[in-house]
Structure to design on (197 residues):
């Protein structure tokens, strides 16, 4: 008897055709008072996706006209931005909305997630501040990481902290990224408020 082999490949669902929506100008907080993040890149993927504000679409980032694939391990969390924030270049920022890495199950591009900041990873990219807010979903039912504070994160998941740090320092061989250090959930919230428009 011949054996039938079935190969199941993971399918990346990306909302390239999300209805035109101005994700940048959504409120930084939702009606429950939680900060919220717009997911650009689902956890576990290598395609670098960015929200194009002019076209109001999620599109692959490109280098020299080619879709940009991260030639490293996939994203260790859902990557996106906090709407209504702007990291002002005149004040040392990188000219983008504030970046967030949400630790949890993979979410589709365009998903809006209420978050709880638990840490900040402070980086310099080409001498510009390129901080990453590290967060968990605000709703307990969506949380995988049981950490409400930076202290919880350090005590319960020191290996995850090391992986995240190493990932951001290593994933892009074309850029010179420097580590400035880590900060608490309070510092993360202060940074969000600093760049809120």
């Amino acid at each position: 008897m011949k054996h039938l082999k079935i190969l199941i490949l993971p399918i990346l669902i990306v909302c390239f055709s999300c209805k035109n929506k101005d994700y940048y100008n959504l409120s930084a907080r939702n009606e429950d008072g939680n900060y919220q993040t717009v997911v650009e890149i689902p956890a576990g993927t290598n395609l670098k996706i960015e929200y194009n504000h002019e076209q109001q679409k999620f599109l692959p980032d490109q280098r020299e006209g080619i879709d940009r694939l991260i030639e490293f391990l996939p994203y260790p969390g859902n990557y996106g931005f906090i709407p209504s924030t702007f990291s002002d270049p005149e004040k040392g920022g990188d000219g983008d909305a504030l970046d967030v890495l949400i630790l949890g199950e993979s979410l589709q591009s365009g998903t809006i997630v209420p978050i709880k900041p638990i840490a900040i990873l402070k980086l310099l990219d080409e001498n510009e501040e390129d901080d990453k807010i590290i967060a968990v979903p605000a709703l307990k039912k969506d949380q995988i990481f049981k950490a409400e504070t930076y202290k919880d994160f350090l005590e319960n998941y020191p290996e995850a902290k090391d992986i995240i740090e190493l990932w951001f320092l290593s994933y892009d061989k074309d850029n010179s990224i420097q580590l400035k250090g880590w900060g608490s959930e309070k510092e993360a919230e202060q940074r969000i408020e600093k760049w809120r428009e």
The first strand starts at residue 35 and ends at 41.
